[in-house]
Design goal:
- It comes from Olivibacter domesticus (Pseudosphingobacterium domesticum).
- Its cofactor is Mo-molybdopterin.
- The protein has helices spanning 3-13, 25-35, 38-50, 139-144, 169-173, 186-193, 218-223, 386-393, and strands at 84-85, 89-91, 109-110, 125-129, 135-137, 148-155, 176-185, 201-206, 213-217, 226-231, 234-235, 245-247, 260-266, 281-283, 287-289, 298-303, 313-322, 328-334, 342-343, 345-346, 356-364, 369-377, 406-409, 415-418.
- By secondary structure, it is of the alpha+beta class.
- It has 3 domains: 3-63, no CATH class; 86-279, Oxidoreductase, molybdopterin-binding domain (Sulfite Oxidase, Chain A, domain 2); 298-418, Immunoglobulin-like (Sandwich).
- It has a 5-stranded mixed β-sheet.
- A hairpin with a 7-residue loop joins strand 18 (328-334) and strand 19 (342-343).
- The model is unreliable at 1-53 (pLDDT under 50).
Length: 421
């Protein structure tokens, strides 16, 4: 068959498929050029311009030619999970995800001055202070050092919401996400500049409009801190700190400074805005807890959860658990309002300072009840109830608030959040 005939056949067999998301002309041209089909490119261009919201799905997909390859893959129009944005944050749809890795575009966001636009060719990181020699590192320089990859979660210390019964996991604690991160160990760079052995703290400073700054103990730098430039196999996305961010596995998200531009090594904390007036919490006795970096053990049942409705019979209860203290060793689930607890199955591999999936098979008999989960980590720490936290801290919320989340299953199978349990 000649090329001209092939083109005519393609013209008659073009699928009337209209993506539900916008596709750039560059992407369309790239896919068509790869096939050498100019007419396909033009026809799809017209389809894109129509901007119809739904696919025209044929009864028999084998009778129509499909869409040609493109520059970037897209989700099915039937699968469109999204983050829940506000002015300074957006929450991960935990209830819509599978496994423990969060797609990069669904990783939660939290910023204090918007997302800056940074040219990677002009990027520099300065390390100075109590060092033998102050140094500047470009992105190219950082990528020349030995790389390291690890999987861990990041969680905002303000990751708690309650008050209404119609809240989903995304709304309750969607400020946690998990990725595979790649970069250079911070200890490698500290050895490169000759960090003073008497130094005990370092300042991390961001290149955003808020000029985010946090004091970090040197011990964390030598334990597992990283400067990362890649997430889930690709370069960091702008909202995640492109081109380079600080990664402190198991610690509160605010300390993991994005768009990092400067590190100053010293022998005392810097007492910045974000660790004095902000990111401190009330505790019993009218006192304030400061430098509470570690994220304690937590879990949440993501299925079943609001706004789902279940049917009488067998239900697989599913969720995730995590801790900044190391590994999750056990998750217990109660299906009778907390009177009895059963051990859930943990999905291997169980990684340190990482989301761990759990599941428990449960037969729902159609009666109204409350289901809940609690996490236990390798240090023996038990996730507390809401009332236990309130009693211990004399506060009903705030930073590092990690209570057990309870769901009420109504007789009609609808699921609702239970507050203050």
């Amino acid at each position: 068959m000649t090329m001209e005939k092939k083109r005519k056949v393609l013209e008659t067999q073009l699928p009337s498929v209209v993506p539900s998301v916008k596709i750039s002309r560059r992407r369309m041209l790239g896919g068509a050029a790869a096939l050498g089909l100019v007419l396909v490119q033009d026809s799809f261009g017209k389809i894109i311009q129509e901007a119809q919201p739904l696919f025209d799905v044929p009864k028999d997909p084998t009778k129509r030619l499909g869409v040609p390859p493109g520059i970037l893959g897209t989700r099915s129009p039937y699968e469109q999970p999204g983050k829940l944005p506000s002015l300074t944050s957006s929450r991960t749809p935990l209830q819509d995800l599978f496994g423990t890795i969060t797609p990069a575009d669904l990783h939660f966001e939290r910023n204090h001055g918007g997302v800056p636009a940074i040219d990677p060719t002009n990027y520099e990181l300065v390390i100075h202070g109590m060092v033998e020699k102050a140094m500047r590192f470009t992105l190219h320089d950082l990528k020349r050092f030995p790389s390291f990859t690890r999987t861990c979660f990041i969680e905002c210390s303000g990751n708690f919401r309650s008050g209404n019964t119609n809240l989903s996991p995304q709304e309750i604690c969607g400020l946690t996400s998990q990725s595979e991160w790649t970069g250079v160990m911070l200890s490698t760079l500290f050895r490169e500049v000759g960090a003073d052995s008497k130094a005990t703290w370092f300042l991390a400073e961001g290149n955003d409009a808020a000029v985010m700054t946090r004091s970090i103990p040197m011990a964390k730098a030598y334990e597992d801190a990283m400067l990362v430039y890649a997430q889930n196999g690709e370069a960091l996305r702008p909202e995640q700190g492109y081109p380079v961010r600080l990664l402190l596995p198991g610690w509160e998200g605010n300390t993991q400074v994005k768009w990092i531009r400067r590190i100053e090594i010293a022998d005392q904390p810097f007492m910045t805005r974000e660790e004095t007036s902000k990111y401190t919490e009330n505790i019993a006795g009218g006192k304030i807890r400061q430098f509470s970096f570690l994220m304690d053990a937590r879990s949440i049942i993501t299925f079943p959860s609001y706004p789902l409705q279940i049917e009488k019979g067998w239900v697989e209860i599913r969720g995730i658990a995590w801790t900044g203290r190391g590994k999750i060793t056990q998750v217990e689930v109660s299906t009778d309002e907390g009177r009895n607890w059963k051990q859930a199955v943990l999905q291997e591999p169980v990684l340190s300072k990482a989301h761990t999936a759990f599941r428990l098979l449960w037969y729902w008999d159609g009666r109204q009840t409350i289901i809940k989960s609690r996490a236990i980590d390798e240090t023996g720490y038990y996730q507390p109830s809401y009332q236990e936290l309130v009693t211990a801290r004399e506060s009903k919320g705030g930073y590092h608030f990690n209570p057990i989340t309870a769901w009420e299953v109504k007789k009609d199978g609808t699921i609702w959040l239970v507050n203050d349990r």
